[in-house]
Amino acid sequence: MYVTAVSPLKTKHLVTAATTNASMLSGFPSDLDGISGWATVTCYLKIFDLAKAPTLGTDLPMMTVMLPANVQVFANFGVKPLSLKNGLAIAVTLNPADTDATVLAAANTSGADIFYSPSNANP
Fold first, then answer.
1. How far is CA 42 from CA 15, 36, 109, in A?
2. Is 120 domain-assigned?
3. pTM of the prediction?
4. Does some domain include residue 1?
5. In the chain, how many domains are there?
6. What is the pLDDT of residues 75-93, one digit of tens each?
7. What is the DSSP annotation of 100-120?
8. What is the DSSP code (8-state) at residue 33?
9. What's the pLDDT tens digit per position in 27-77?
10. How many other CB atoms are there within 10 angstroms of residue 99's CB atom?
11. Which range marks the domain in which residue 35 is found?
């Protein structure tokens, strides 16, 4: 992970509920440094370049990460993080389509740790 004194690394730990868990992590330009995720059923972590919580079915993700059932996923962007101009928002859906808004059933849990660095002094 690439960390500087100007952009402190932040972490969001998410364990899904029976929703899409659509949420905004940073309302400022940010760098996505890495992801760690797991799931009991194959599902999809959607990454959005937005300064608000995404509206699934309308807002399109800039990246979709498959979380296969019973397999831990790691993605480390190293010294070249994924730059997000507007902000960082996420959601988890059951299907990979960009416009999917299918929620996971309550029994089908997943989780993720999102590592990011706001590019602004106001994280």
1. 15, 15, 10
2. no
3. 0.87
4. no
5. 1
6. 998 878 899 999 999 999 9
7. --PPPPTT--EEEEEEEEESS
8. E
9. 999 999 999 999 999 999 999 999 999 999 999 999 999 999 999 999 998
10. 12
11. 10-107
